[in-house]
Amino acid sequence: SSTAGWHSRAQPHPDPSSFTPTRDTLSLAVLRNAPADPEGFTLALFSPDIAVDASGSVLRLENHNDFTSLVALANQANELPRTGSFMNMWCLKRARTSQPIERLFVPLTSGELVQTSVQGYEKGLTELKERVGEYTTLPGVLQELFGLVEEARAGYVRGEEDKAVIEKV
After folding, report:
1. Dihedral of alpha carbons 104, 108, 111, 114, sign
2. Which of 57, 69, 72, 78 has a 20 to 30 A CA-CA distance from 6?
3. How many secondary structure helices (H) and strands (E) does the chain include?
4. Which of 145, 152, 74 is nearest to 114 (CA)?
5. Which residue from 115, 114, 54, 108 is spatially nearest to 90, judged by alpha carbons?
6. CA 115/CA 78 separation, integer angstroms
């Protein structure tokens, strides 16, 4: 994907303390539920070009295509069939059962947040534990999106994140 590397291309916001996230500018948010990090924050995007990453850094996506591509993938994820399970979860087949859950939230024009989750995401792993509709493997849009979202955890060290910024989000 040409969007790969978006996090390293993003520039620090010139005045991060001036950034105030609002619900109406939220384009997507990704949280991580894991035994070691039950309320983990990974990424939030705010229009027109702001990202807050797992470390709490406020970034500007100066390459407009990066922002629009991430949001387009999130909107495509919303169009996938519902799984019928808690958190609309797609579960990958894994040897261990206790796997982190990546939770994508995308606002609809009504303001409602639609959730799509993947349990046990790992780049290159696609086989689902149970089929969802016609799918026996993780849909390509989710593989690509969660692979890109993972970049927001680059350099993240638990306990060193800017909690004040993340709490604002």
Report:
1. negative
2. 78
3. 4, 10
4. 74
5. 115
6. 8
CB 81 within 8 A of CB 131: no
Residues in the chain: 169
Q: How many CB atoms lie within 10 A of CB 165?
A: 20
Asked whether the bond before 35 is cis by omega within 30 degrees of 0, the reply is no
Which residue carries 């797609």 as its tokens? 90
Please list the pLDDT of the chain residue by residue as tens digits (169 residues).
799 999 999 999 999 999 999 999 999 999 999 877 777 999 999 999 999 999 999 999 999 999 999 999 999 999 999 999 999 999 999 887 789 999 999 999 888 999 999 999 999 999 999 999 999 999 999 999 999 999 999 888 888 889 889 988 8
CB 104 within 8 A of CB 117: yes
Chain-centroid distance, C-alpha 72:
12
Please report, as a single letter, which amino acid is at residue 71: V
Angstrom distance (rounded) from CA 118 to CA 91: 6
- Helix locations, the chain, DSSP H: 6-9, 64-78, 140-149, 163-168
What is the C-alpha end-to-end distance of the chain, expressed in Å?
27
